[in-house]
Design goal:
The protein is mostly helical and 96 residues long. The protein has one domain. It is built from four helices and no strands. Helix 2 packs antiparallel against helix 3. The protein is elongated, with a radius of gyration of 22 Å.
Length: 96
């Protein structure tokens, strides 16, 4: 299994926004606690556990239909891009 196959891409969806915002909140709370005098290791572990839990929740949300509905878009290869770019230039020259 390649890294791309393993990557869980939520896309611009409810599950993605939930995951993003929950991680921001978890790490912000941990940072504020650490700055406020809390134990570095304790609050780092708390943030990591919360991050893992919210990632699991986002995965369940994705499976429940709140994630990407279409396959992940694949960018063109260099050869495909160059061919389309060359064709576009030719079309512009013909139109002019």
């Amino acid at each position: 299994m390649s890294a791309d196959e393993h990557h869980d891409d939520h896309g611009n969806t409810v599950s993605a926004w939930f995951l993003t915002l929950s991680w921001i909140v978890a790490w912000t709370v941990a940072a504020v606690a650490i700055i406020g005098g809390g134990d570095l290791v304790t609050w780092t572990v708390v943030a990591l556990v919360v991050s893992a839990a919210t990632a699991a929740v986002a995965g369940v949300m994705k499976k429940a239909g709140l994630g990407r509905k279409e396959p992940r878009p694949v960018p063109p290869t260099r050869e495909e891009w160059e061919a389309s770019h060359t064709a576009a230039k030719k079309d512009k020259k013909v139109a002019a």
